[in-house]
Amino acid sequence: xxxxxxxxxxxxxxxxxAGGGAVLASCGGGPQATAALPDLSTGxxxxxxxxxxxxxxxxxxxxxxxPRDWANYGKMIDTFKERYGLVVNELFPxxxxxxxxxxxxxxxxxxxxxxxxxxxxxxxxxxxxTEEGLFAKYRxxxxxxxPDSVKHPEGYWYGDYYGVLAFEGNLxxxxxxxxxxxxxxxxxxxxxxxxxxxxTTSAEANYTVWAAGLxxxxxxxxxxxxxxxxxxxxxxxxxxxxxxxxxSTIARGETPLTVEWDYLALANRDQYAGNPPTAxxxxxxxxxxxxxxxxxxxxxxxxxxxxxxxxFQYSDEGQLIFLEGYAHPIRYNDLAARNVIPAELAALxxxxxxxxxxxxxxxxQVNTAKEYIATNWRSVVYGE
Length: 384
Known about the structure:
Layout: H1 8-11, H2 48-58, E1 60-64, H3 73-84, E2 87-91, H4 97-106, E3 118-122, H5 126-131, E4 135-136, E5 158-170, H6 203-217, H7 223-236, H8 247-251, E6 257-261, H9 262-272, E7 278-281, E8 289-297, H10 303-313, H11 316-324, E9 328-329, H12 332-337, H13 343-346, H14 363-382
Parallel strand pairs: 1-2
Antiparallel strand pairs: 3-8, 4-8, 5-6, 5-7, 5-8, 5-9
């Protein structure tokens, strides 16, 4: 695929509407297990001491599409390296989900560091890639605390963190922040709002349309059509700008109001450091959660290091590292129930009650809404 290279913040896991093959998923990864190394074929969790020892015989791990300022992955990688003494090859930090999948396909036979061992991808990509046999199964030791709705029952993929869509505003320009989706249609926001991507290709923008519709219908299954109608109204009112919002255009006041994943918006707030003053508001309704997922390549050159990386990310320590980057870890409810979230960390986030009504779509719902919105965006919103 030929395209302009974007940063991952801008790329936001571009959702090319690609299908997958109907091949059964592989259950292994990398070299065959021997008597001297733990068995990989079952997909069961491997005791941590055995797994760490096996990973250290490999000596390295190759990850892909993990910018260091995205969900606190810089700290995640550095802490993992220090803990286990492995070299971590950080491949193509600016890649999107489609690029990650293609990297597995094109490196099936490679045993070198350029072949990714693990992936962090949008939920809309997991089903086709699993059917194509690109993932290896592994159920981490904290498996039971990962919600069933965001994991493959056999362990071919599982959610790692999620965000909800939030309003982000430059308070030098926006005098009163919207508190819910319908507020965005007020005349005071004429020429102020821009999406953070194109809904035909950007997961974040596509979800934004879906969330606006969810606020009106209360049903994920009917929200895509309602979301398109909402943005058609916004366009007709002169509120929707024909451009894309990013950190620079927000700061300059060119696109002073947008919608982003909360962890990106909160990180932007920190980056601006009051210049400009910035507000981040989770809407009262239409709170749509967007999980990303982890998977191990079925052709991973370092299969034990890949599983050790998974164990670290899904440990309490790894999950709290995500939370420090404002991304809600997938095991958030379990952490909260056991009172292991530091109070000072919780205080940096929007109120917990803002997330209580978050809707978590299924993979089928994601794929259906994604295709409907992408197909009908320009005809419904712009009349083309």
